[in-house]
Amino acid sequence: MDGILLSATKVAYKLKVSEQYARKLMRDGKIKSEQVGKSWVTKEDNYKDYINSGEFLVNPDDKIRPSHEIPEIVALSFFSGAQGLDYGFSKTCVKPILACEINKDARSSILANDSDIGLIGDIWDATPERIYEYANLPMGYPVDIIIGGPNCQPMSTAGKRKGFADIRGEAFIRYIDVIEEIRPKYFILENVRGLLSVEAIFDDTNDKPVKGGVLHYTLNRFEKMGYAVSFQLYNAANFGAPQGRERIILLGKLGTEKLPYLTPTHSENGEYGLPKWRTLRDAIGDIQKGIHHYVDIPKGRKDWYTKIPEGGNWRSLSLEDQKKAMGNAYNSSGGKSGFFRRLDFNKVSPTLLTNPLMKATDLVHPTELRPLSIEEYSRIQGFPDDWHFCGKIVEQYRQIGNAVPTQLGEAIGRTIMADIRGKRLPQYEGFKFSRYKNTDEISFKSDYQKWTKDAMSKNLQMSLTI
C-alpha cells in the first residue's frame, strides 16, 4: 500500500473515537483498508474519502473566541443546539459570544454558521474560569445576559426520586448553578410545558412528591440569588412563527423589578388589531419548486397517504382501510389525530419534532408523497435559507426539531433590549398567550400551595388508614 499510512490508533485519534470502533470501520470496509498481520492500516487518502463522504462527522474542538473586542452587551449561550433561540435573539438584541453545546452535529452547525463565536462542550466542564477563557473575556467581567434551554428529558423522572438531593447531576440544575456563578444581569430559561407540573420530593413533604416541585425549587433558587422572575407559557404562533409550538419562558433580572411578559406580534384571529397567525403556506409556499432533502415514508405506510387529502389523517380513510392502516392502534384510547397526518397549507404547522415520521405525530407534506423536508423544517422554525445544518439528514431533523422558533427568540430579545434602554413595549391586557390557563408565575405560586396541601393531605390519610 503506497502513500502515507494510518494505523487504527491514528484513525481513532483523528475521528475522536475508540480504537476498537476505528478498527471496526476499517475491517468493515467503511474506510478502505488492508490487514497487515494482526493490524489494520489505511492510506491518508482513504481516510479523507471517508470523511468527505459525510458518513461520519468529527466532533470539532472547543474554541476560544478569536476576537479580543468586547461588545457593548455581553451574552452567553448554553444548550445552544442549532441556535434557534440565539439567532432570533441576535436579530433584536445581541449575538452571543460563546456557545455551550455537547452534541457534535450541533457543534459543527454552530461553527459553520458563526466563525467568530467561542465554543465549549459539556456544561459540567463549564467552570467560570473556562467560560471566561473561551468567551475571551477578562475574568470577572460583567456578563449581561445568559441564554439557555437546558435539556428537560431527565427531569420527567424527578418525581420518582428522593427529591433534589438525588438529581444534582441533572444538566437542568447545572444551568441554574452556572447562572449563580456568573451572575448575569438577565437570564433566560426556556423549557417545555411539562416543567410547570414536574413533581419533586422535599424534606418538608414527608417523602411525598409535590406537583410543580421542580419549578418551585427553581424559583426559590433564583429568588435567593437576588433575581426577580416572570414566566409564561407562550405559543410561538403569537410571535410570528407559522407553528403552534408552546414553550415556557422564564425571564430573570437582578433586583426586585420583574420583566414584563413578551409582546405578541400576531393573534389567532386578528384580536387586538394584530395580524392573524401565519400559515404553513406563508412559510414554505415560495420554495415548493426548489430542491428538497427528506427521509422516505416507509413502504408499508406510503400507499395509505395516496388516499388522504390535505389536512386529513387516518380518519379520512374508509372504515375498512382505517382498521388496516392503524392495526392495533385503531382500538387504543387517547388522541390519535397525528396518525397518517397530512398538514394543511392554510393552517399553522403542528409542533415540529425530531423526526417527521413518528407514527403518532406524522408531519407529512400537504399534497406530496413525502414528509416535510429539511428546507421546510428550517423555514417553519424561522431560520434563514442559508443557515447550515451539519450531520446526516436524521441529525439535521433532530437539530431543527429541537430548536426554539427564532421568532420567539426575537420577542425575548425585544423585551430585554427595551428594558436595557429604559423603554416599555406594548402590553395587551387579557391576551391569551397559549391554550392553557394559569401558566404564569403568579398563578403558579397559588397553585403550588394547593398542590402541597393536597400531597400532605394524602399522606395524612394514608397514615390514618395504616
UniProtKB/TrEMBL annotation:
UniProt cross-references to InterPro entries, sorted A to Z: C5-Methyltransferase (IPR050390), C5_MeTfrase (IPR001525), SAM-dependent_MTases_sf (IPR029063)
Entry's Gene Ontology BP terms: DNA restriction-modification system; methylation; negative regulation of gene expression via chromosomal CpG island methylation
Enzyme Commission identifier(s): 2.1.1.37
PANTHER family: CYTOSINE-SPECIFIC METHYLTRANSFERASE, DNA (CYTOSINE-5)-METHYLTRANSFERASE 1
Domain of life according to the entry: Bacteria
Protein name as annotated: DNA (cytosine-5-)-methyltransferase
Keywords from the named record: Methyltransferase, Restriction system, S-adenosyl-L-methionine, Transferase
Keyword Methyltransferase in annotation: yes
GO function terms (MF aspect): DNA (cytosine-5-)-methyltransferase activity; DNA binding
UniProt family annotation: Belongs to the class I-like SAM-binding methyltransferase superfamily. C5-methyltransferase family.
Active site: 152
NCBIfam families named among the record's database cross-references: dcm
Organism: Sporolactobacillus laevolacticus DSM 442
PROSITE patterns, A to Z: SAM_MT_C5
